[in-house]
Amino acid sequence: MTWLARVPALDALEPPARAALDRLRPVDMAKGTVLFRPGDAVSGYAIVLSGRIDVSLTSASGREILLYSVAPGQSCIQSTMGLMGGTDYSAEGMAQHDTTLVLLPKSLFLDLVESSPGFRAIVFRAFADRMQTMMHLLEKVAFQRVECRIAEHLLDLSRAGNPIHITQSELATQVGTAREVISRRLDAWARRGLVRTGRGTVEIMDAQALCEIAKTGM
């Protein structure tokens, strides 16, 4: 079965565009593989078939923030901007799970954007969706208090299971703050009985209280 069958968004592409894409072969990336770093030239457009790529930015002081994740069906705005605008990567992309993807070379990507209305629509729609996500992140970091962001993010993560398997460093990266801030906040909440922390885990004990903290908002 061709890999195109795993990407429903490509079903409506014109036959020549599908044929060009079908000649490409999926590539497997092990968990922890760095796909790009700041300053690297953008060489292609990735279509993720399985797994996840996290794109993060690290400051000169070492503080890291997760900008977005690229899951199957999503796009990497850094790659799109680089391919269409000629800029280099300004963030780092790392496979957070074993990941399978198809990489469109720059020449093929630009050719399809020009010649295939269907492909062009997919790229621009994905770009717009990712921009909206980035604006939402900017709004949260700029205007929402850090304890509200932590509470909201823990509640989101708990939908996949409680306790939450995450380190304080990972949580800090995802929320956009320092690990020390996470540690102090979790310790305070643990004393109040809102959460219980373990080695690499956070268990929510009082979801309603965390929801009230998250609702205090901006």
Helix fraction, binned, reads 40-55%
Biggest sheet record: 4 strands, antiparallel
Classification by helices and strands: alpha+beta
What spatial form do the alpha-carbon principal axes imply? Answer: elongated
Beta strand count: 10
User: What portion of residues belong to β-strands?
Assistant: 15-25%
CATH class of the largest domain: Mainly Beta
Structure, described:
The structure is a single chain. This protein is an alpha+beta fold. The protein folds into two domains: 3-142, Sandwich (Jelly Rolls), CATH 2.60.120.10; 144-215, Winged helix-like DNA-binding domain superfamily/Winged helix DNA-binding domain (Arc Repressor Mutant, subunit A, Orthogonal Bundle), CATH 1.10.10. The protein has helices spanning 15-22, 77-85, 106-115, 117-143, 146-158, 168-175, 179-191, 207-215, and strands spanning 27-29, 34-36, 44-50, 53-58, 64-70, 92-95, 99-105, 164-165, 195-198, 201-204. The protein has a four-stranded antiparallel β-sheet. A three-stranded antiparallel β-sheet has the order 1-7-3. It has a three-stranded antiparallel β-sheet with strand order 8-10-9. A hairpin with a 2-residue loop joins strand 9 (195-198) and strand 10. Helix 3 (106-115) crosses helix 4, helix 5 packs across helix 8 and helix 6 (168-175) crosses helix 7 (179-191). 24% of the residues are buried. The model has no long low-confidence stretch (mean pLDDT 90).
